[in-house]
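Attaching the record inline, Q. Sequence:
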Amino acid sequence: MVKFTVTKKDPVTSARTGKLETKHGVFETPVFMPVGTNATVKGLWQEQLKELGARIILGNAFHLYLKPGLEVIRSFGGLHSFMNWNNSILTDSGGFQVFSLKDKKVLDEGVLFKSPIDGSKIMMTPELSMEIQMTLGSDIAMAFDECVAPELDRTYAQESVERTTRWAEKCLAYHDRSQALFGIVQGAFYKDLREKSAREITAMDFDGFAVGGLSVGEPFEVTRDILEFTTKLLPEDKPRYLMGIGTPDMIIMAVENGIDMFDCVLPTRMGRHGTALTWSGKINLKAARHKFSKEPIDPECNCKVCRSYSKGYIYHLFSRDELLGKMMLSYHNVHFLLDFTDRLRNAIREERFLEFKELCTRKQLIKNDTGVNVSEG
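Structure, as predicted:
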């Protein structure tokens, strides 16, 4: 299904590089994966994603099940053909989206909820999640798990861990192994529950493991503490995935603790709202101070937006609510995070990880630890 090889370990931290081979190609880790929830990374053509160097993107089982539906995807021969993307795809099980719904009922067999499309009742089960993802034909599928809110108490968190384990077993029993399948470790912010979940999930025959239930509103230091604790419980010979992170400070922290894969909608979401990610921090291109600026978004960036267009022009596009401005910033932001991750990989290879981290701190890409994480997944 997938072949993962660790190629370099940082001598001081748990950061590492690797190669992950799927049916649709090989890519290096750590890797940032742009999110294409509805079979599209918002604002970008697939050709542009390839141009930017994206080797793997995400699709979402929940949303694609609702629209266009499995019948349509099946008629096209899978998601790769449907969206004309011949590189790798990872599909989210839909667990996060289901559990973000307000009107739902969690049962032992799955989650009952009303479709946000037409109001019809849907029972999302581990088996249905596997059926959806097998139909999509992604290279990597995710087990169906329960992602709990950070404020829920320990009693429910323990029940949820046990439920996630049962659902993981059902996913493995139903899945035909036509694609790789990753298990997800839960446990909220209780270390003993994280340890229990990791012990049970890693004992199963998954191809990789994800750390779930983080970056859902907790303080940064809590994320770091739980992640550092949890990743040490995961096998070293399989890929490790932290879902829903996409800021430089979160990426640095995750990689420092041994994470290989991460994703986020942040670059395109911020781009659509006029914010650019740069090597000097975030820039609001809607601000009037850029009206006469002939400078590029980021002098350190070599993407074609920065090579060809000024901040003044992009400010004008946003002031007139032109679609092109949103597309340009989405393109630039995806380029920034892919480039950031490329430089991070190179730093690990050359045993300069801590030096790279210090550089990011000086450039104020890494903030202090008082912030609160809000999921962008």
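Confidence is low (pLDDT under 50) at residues 368-377. The two ends are 25 Å apart (CA to CA).

More tomorrow.
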